[in-house]
Amino acid sequence: MSLPHALLTSLAERPGSGSELASRFDRSIGYFWQATHQQIYRELARLEANGWVRSVAIEGARGRKRRYDLLPQGLEELARWTAEPMDPPAIRDELMVRLRAESVIGPSALAQRLTEMLSLHRQKLAAYQAIERRDFVSSSSDRRRRLQHLVLKAGVDFERQRIAFYEDALSILEDDG
Amino acid sequence: MSLPHALLTSLAERPGSGSELASRFDRSIGYFWQATHQQIYRELARLEANGWVRSVAIEGARGRKRRYDLLPQGLEELARWTAEPMDPPAIRDELMVRLRAESVIGPSALAQRLTEMLSLHRQKLAAYQAIERRDFVSSSSDRRRRLQHLVLKAGVDFERQRIAFYEDALSILEDDG
DNA sequence: TCCACCATGTAATGCGTTACATGATTGA
DNA sequence: TCAATCATGTAACGCATTACATGGTGGA
């Protein structure tokens, strides 16, 4: 259960409102942990009830906007969680199920779906590589930057592997598809 | 929502009881889609209510064991689903959140956790490679076998990438950890 | 003034997880 | 005969998802 800690992490990087956090989950943090604004508002309320964050109304802002700040207890909780024992990641890959189904029931339109996915992943890869070129040109960096770069490279590698997999799968499916 | 279709796929490969399906989800299918026996029994009841499978009591078996068979309508549903438009996979990687947290809050015991995970993934990789050597020695095969091999290779590649990632992460964390 | 949008929130539903329950069978 | 185990199932809870609601702000 990482959503509360993903929020604490994001607030440790920089305070912000619910909608700002939601937009971070559409970009940086969201590359490896997604959340909708409903989840985020619900969770922020809990974090505040736990005394891990506090919020103040932002005067002069649109609507009822509030800024959330990490409290010392929240930082403690984040440190505790980071070092906690960890389960291996749960893999749930619908594509593999579909390929296995196809291998039993015979050719289908799955190849077209793969072609669509392939172009999506190529776009994602290009986006990650653009970030890498823009933000991580210098090779020598401090610990923090090296860790950030590492996480980005994991995204790049994942997309690369995914693309290679789609290409292999298509070459099999299209042999007789 | 792939659990019902993972079950249909497994039953298309071979009929079986709830407990047999549960044990398949601890092995082959479970490598990319996990399910507990509670989920499986609940879902089997729904599949039967939908007319996609039927079940008969197995005489002479332990307890109330029932065999589930795929019905023609279930096969149709499986084919329909296989070719359906597909969303990109949802990535939820707790490790990346933790690394990002560490990059903000500074050194922790996360390196020890990574060492533990590393050995787990090395075991998984070895298990996959053993299956590959045992079941996929011949390079020339039919479509069905090639697809099965492809899915297994995806598992191998995933574990390999994961291992490389842990090693990189450890080398950064241990510089000063 | 009024419409579109922003920021926050409520409600309903469903899958996934955990704990517990029941009946039957095997083996010591 | 009795304990362990197998096979199936029930119940409760939580996160994730989707649809919808509210109120305020800015621009046409």
UniProtKB/TrEMBL annotation, chains A, B:
Residues 91-174 form the Transcription regulator PadR C-terminal domain. Residues 7-79 form the Transcription regulator PadR N-terminal domain. Signal peptide: none annotated. It holds the Pfam family Vir_act_alpha_C. SUPFAM superfamilies: Winged helix' DNA-binding domain (SSF46785). PANTHER family: TRANSCRIPTIONAL REGULATOR YQJI (PTHR43252), TRANSCRIPTIONAL REGULATORY PROTEIN (PTHR43252:SF4). This is PadR family transcriptional regulator. It comes from Brevundimonas pondensis.
